[in-house]
Amino acid sequence: MDSEQTNYGFSPTNGNLRTANPLPRAVLRSNNFLLLDGEWRFAIDPDDAGLREGWYLAHQYDLTASWPGSVESHILEARGQQNTAAWHDRIVVWYEREFTLPERGDEGSHSMFQLTFGACGYETRVWLNGHLLTTIEGETVHYGEYTSFSFELQEVHLRPVNRLTVRIMDTMDAETPRGKQESHVYKRGGIWYQTYTGAVRSVWLEMVERNRLRSRVGVDSVIEDQLVRFNLTTRIHDPGPYTLRLQVFERFAKSAQPLAKAEYPMKLEAGQRQQRVVMELAGAQVWSNASPTLYRLVAQLIDADGYTAEIETHFGLRKIESRGRNVYLNNEPIYLDGILYQPGTATYEEMQRHMHAMKELGCNLVRVHIAGVDPRIYNLADELGMLLWVEVPSPHSSTPRSRENHRAELLRMLALIESHPSVVIWSLYNEDWGCQDIATNPATREYIIEMYHYMQIHHPQFLVVDNDGWHHISHEGRLKSDLLTAHLYTPELERWRELLDRMVQGEMEGVAVNPLVVGDPFYYGRQKPLIVSEWGGFGFVDYGGPADAEDRAQRIRDFKRELRQRPIAGDVYTQATNIEDERNGLIDPHTGALDVPPGLLNSNPAADEPAGPGSGI
């Protein structure tokens, strides 16, 4: 295969995070990169012989595949089939390509080459010129398929022309985080989908400093005190004294004086560590749906000789609270007009259209349903003023190993998403998937309680739901969830009124499919916000309701009216687009066109009208 592809050669990183950032991450680095997307050699390894036979040293590849792309699509192309490709237990595939090592810039000994996979999995091994690579976190095998991971390339292994080999393995293992992809437990059909795994996001080579800030920034603001807490990650090869310099600018003011500036001297050992620092940002405007004010952070790590490594990102200041029966954004009560969103196999461009369409529907919240999305979508939500409810892709069985995998996936996601003001709610589990024994197994409940407390302590900028839909955990009468949520499906308006009335009156049983609370007795007295986090589904044969667009729109209006007449804090309509067997979408999955009138899901249009100048913190 020709290594001189059209994307050969280092390109400068510039522009803003969404419109001009070609890399699927939420941080800009002022360096050069080489995108390795495009045609790769490809092989299916049905007998898993590649490791034994040393395919990473040499192998004859007879097929090609376009990266990024799913294993399923690559198998389909390789076999020349017209129907859906499927694998039923375990799949092993290999990819390989060459790249010419770009010339170094002026950085000299201060820099090194880094290889990053935007997402790939579930189990990924990578070789450079036959040498097995180790991630920055020390993994020779990377587990996970929803977040990025990186390798620092050693000089001794580099050549003028380099061979990159990737082995990807996935199974139907129910103990791994899968979301709604089929497994040994939940088979494809209805609400369960075909697997979509493998080389699903871009891969790139870039120059990075030996001593630098990694591409991850956490932000937690206390708006009453005019303080912002930044959580940064340092990567050091040369221990010694360093200075961390932070500068905050108006978002598009490239040459203006910073609004705030602070420096923090620190002595750093070799390796990777996190550091939280606090910075005052007097007079800053808060981020909200109506006024999504963003600021630009330039973070620099400066060594004793004055050499500077820099990253840039945007952030917003906002406060989300669960207080009494309401959700509060920046100390003001807000009703959550939400919609369930399952991106499935949508491209980045299609997801952009979906986000704009969901805002046109009148939503102020999107519940990204147990799936990973391109990180640039979070940036878009920040710009649009769209609240996001994100969820850990769930395993499909409840075991000690599935809980270990779940925790690892949660931590990987948090490291890369915690900077976005749009992300306000996290679900640990959904409808008992991966915690099926939550009502009977104390170990399962103890794990969920532990992770709920972990989130409260380490990530107080988010609301956390323990198990969305039902079976929330009560311990000593305290709900281990910031929201009391219920999934209510009925096409009948009278039955809908009955269910809502029983729920707001505090009935915990006979409302949803399962009791709303498990564990110790829980007595509802409006001490937690009630959210109907799934409802509707009109158009999906399993949920009933009218298929005609006009009738469906009127049914939605009628059901929304009943919600707003009761002390309920928000709702999430199911769902945004059609996906496989679920034909209940309101938005064309390809074009983003609405199938129903604009504003249909906005239950209080006046509340979302832009106000005057934003209030300061």
Structure characterization notes:
This protein is an alpha+beta fold and 617 residues long. It has three domains: 28-209, Sandwich (Jelly Rolls); 212-315, Immunoglobulin-like, CATH 2.60.40.10; 333-587, TIM Barrel, CATH 3.20.20.80. The protein is 16% helix and 34% strand. The protein has eight helices and 36 strands. Helix 8 links the parallel strand 35 (530-536) and strand 36. Helix 3 packs parallel to helix 4 (375-384) and helix 7 (493-504) packs parallel to helix 8. The radius of gyration is 25 Å and the shape is globular. Residues 224-318 form the Glycoside hydrolase family 2 immunoglobulin-like beta-sandwich domain. Belongs to the glycosyl hydrolase 2 family. Residues 53-170 form the Beta-galactosidase jelly roll domain. Keywords: Glycosidase, Hydrolase.
**How are strands sequenced across the largest beta sheet?**
30-29-28-27-26-36-35-33
Radius of gyration: 25 Å
Reported by name, the CATH topology of the largest domain is TIM Barrel
Shape: globular
Largest sheet: 8 strands, parallel
Mean pLDDT: 91
What is the correct CATH architecture of the largest domain? Alpha-Beta Barrel
Helix content: 10-25%
Sheet/helix structural class: alpha+beta
CATH superfamily of the largest domain: Glycosidases
Task: Assign the CATH class of the largest domain.
Answer: Alpha Beta
Question: What is the CA-CA span between the terminal residues?
Answer: 57 Å
What is the number of independent domains? 3
Strand element count:
36
Instruction: Figure out the total of helices.
Output: 8
Q: Give the low-confidence spans.
A: 1-9, 607-617
Domain Glycoside hydrolase family 2 catalytic: 323-536
Pfam family, one: BetaGal_ABD2
Keywords: Glycosidase, Hydrolase
Domain Glycoside hydrolase family 2 immunoglobulin-like beta-sandwich: 224-318
